[in-house]
Design a protein that fits this description.
The protein is of the alpha/beta class and about 325 residues long. It is built from 10 helices and 14 strands.
Length: about 325
C-alpha cells in the first residue's frame, strides 16, 4: 500500500490537472455511475465526524473519515483533519492511504476551479476570498489555475491569520495584488467570489453582488449553516454538485426553496453543464457544493495512477 503526505499530493497532482480529473467525477455524479451512500454525520466531543464512502462501480472503493473541530483554531491546531483509504474493489486490497485533509482541499479547490472555468466570465480578474482556513490556499490556487487573477481581496474576522495568509499568498502569486479587505467592498468589486467559511449566518449579502459575478460557496455543509444570503439565489443561476445532497444539506438552498426564491426544477448539476456555460455577461452564477464522495474517489484514483511504486510503499520524491 502506498502512502501520501500532503506534500506528496501537491506534487503528484497539480491543481490544473485536478480540475480535469474532477470533470470526470462530476460527469459520473450526474450520470449516476457508481455507489455513493449519503455522508454519515456523527456529533462527537467538540465537533463533527463525517464518514464518506464511495465505489466507482468498476475497480475502486474508498472511504474518507473527517473530523471538524472549530475550537481547535484557538489552540493553534487544524480545525479539520481527515484520512482517506483507497481499496481494490475486486479483492479488498488496500492500495493507498493519504492525507485526507490535503485531498479534501485539493478536490474542493478543483471543484470550484471547474465551476469557475465553466461559469465565470472569461475576462474575470478580481477575486474576493472569504475565509482563510484549511480550504483557502487550494481555493486560491484553483482560481489562479483557471482565470488570470490580478486582484484578490481577502476577508476574515481574524486579523492575525488573515495577515499570515496574505503574506503566503503574495509569495505564491507575486504579480497579483493581494490585500485584506472589508467584506462589502471586496464582494462589490469582485468578478469571482469564494466563500470558504464554517459560518452559520450569511457572510455574503445579496446586495453586495454585482451583475456578472460568479460565486463559489464551498464552506457550509449542514442545514443549519449559511454562508450566503439565501436571497442571492433569487437573482442567480444555481448550480450544485449533486441535487439530492444540496436539497437536504445546504442551508442556503433549503431556505431559498422554502422562501420561494428558487424553483427546485431549475437547479442544475455541474456535471450537466458544458464548458463556457455562461448565458450572458450580466448573469450571476452560484456554484454550491456540500461535498461528494465521488470527488475524493476520483482524485485518489488519479493519485494512485500518478504515484510510482516505491520500495517502502510511499510516494516520496
Amino acid at each position: 500500500m502506498r502512502t501520501l503526505s500532503a506534500d506528496d499530493i501537491a506534487r503528484v497532482l497539480p491543481m490544473r490537472d485536478a480540475v480535469d480529473v474532477l470533470a470526470d467525477a462530476f460527469r459520473a455524479i450526474s450520470q449516476r455511475e457508481g455507489q455513493y451512500p449519503a455522508r454519515m454525520h456523527v456529533a462527537i466531543a467538540g465537533g463533527d465526524a463525517l464518514v464518506m464512502p464511495g465505489y466507482d462501480g468498476r475497480a475502486h472503493f474508498g472511504v474518507k473519515v473527517a473530523t471538524i473541530h472549530p475550537g481547535n483554531l484557538v489552540a493553534g491546531k487544524p480545525g479539520t483533519r481527515a484520512t482517506y483509504l483507497l481499496l481494490d474493489a475486486q479483492d479488498g486490497e488496500p492500495l493507498l492511504l493519504c492525507d485526507g485533509t490535503a485531498l479534501t482541499a485539493l478536490r474542493t479547490g478543483a471543484a470550484s476551479g471547474l465551476a469557475t472555468r465553466r461559469l465565470a466570465r472569461a475576462g474575470a480578474t478580481k477575486l474576493a476570498l472569504f475565509g482563510v482556513g484549511s480550504q483557502a490556499c487550494a481555493q486560491l490556487d484553483a482560481m489562479f489555475a483557471v482565470r488570470a487573477i490580478a486582484d484578490v481581496g481577502v476577508v476574515s474576522r481574524d486579523p492575525k491569520r488573515a495577515e499570515t495568509f496574505v503574506s503566503t499568498a503574495r509569495s505564491r502569486y507575486p504579480h497579483a495584488r493581494i490585500e485584506r479587505a472589508d467584506a462589502a467592498s471586496a464582494a462589490s468589486h469582485a468578478d469571482i467570489i469564494v466563500t470558504a467559511t464554517n459560518s452559520q449566518v450569511p457572510v455574503l449579502q445579496a446586495s453586495w453582488v454585482k451583475p456578472g459575478t460568479h460565486v463559489n460557496a464551498i464552506g457550509s455543509f449542514r442545514p443549519d449553516m449559511r454562508e450566503l444570503d439565501p436571497a442571492l439565489l433569487r437573482r442567480a443561476r444555481l448550480v450544485v454538485d449533486d441535487r439530492s445532497s444540496a436539497l437536504v444539506e445546504s442551508g442556503e438552498v433549503i431556505e431559498a426553496l422554502h422562501n420561494g426564491y428558487v424553483d427546485g426544477s431549475s437547479i442544475a448539476e455541474l456535471g450537466e453543464i458544458d464548458e463556457n456555460a455562461r448565458r450572458s455577461d450580466d448573469e450571476i452564477t452560484v456554484f454550491k457544493t456540500v461535498g461528494h464522495a465521488a470527488l475524493d474517489l476520483f482524485a485518489a484514483v488519479r493519485l494512485l495512477q500518478a504515484c510510482p511504486r516505491h520500495e517502502h510503499g510511499n510516494c516520496a520524491g
